[in-house]
Amino acid sequence: MRLYWLLLGWAVALSACAPGALRPSSFNLTVDNSRCQGTYRTVFIYRNNVIMGQVQGEPRTFLSVPAGSADYKATPVLGNSPSLFKTIRLEKDEVWRLCE
Fold first, then answer.
1. What pLDDT digit, counting tens, does each position of 3-54 carry?
2. How crowded is residue 71: how many other Cβ atoms within 10 Å of its Cβ?
3. I need a labelling partner for 72 at 20 to 30 A (CA). Which of 4, 22, 62, 89 fits?
């Protein structure tokens, strides 16, 4: 019984030393282009130059995006309009509103 309490005490002490292990490692990112017009109505979304998906005129939520800082890019599917860029640090669920 004494060994049980000793092991329990060690487990509690070790878990107190690693609070970061309890934090989520991913969050949701919602990209909202509902206010956009023209070529920005349909855009490809990239995270660190890797395509995540497409957003078509209404908010889209990308689930389980890795936590931390990353460079995001919204590139129109059609036309020659320039891409939109933003660096986002995900520490909670975020919304990126295009065309504000």
1. 655 566 666 555 555 555 566 899 999 999 999 999 999 999 999 999 999 9
2. 12
3. 22
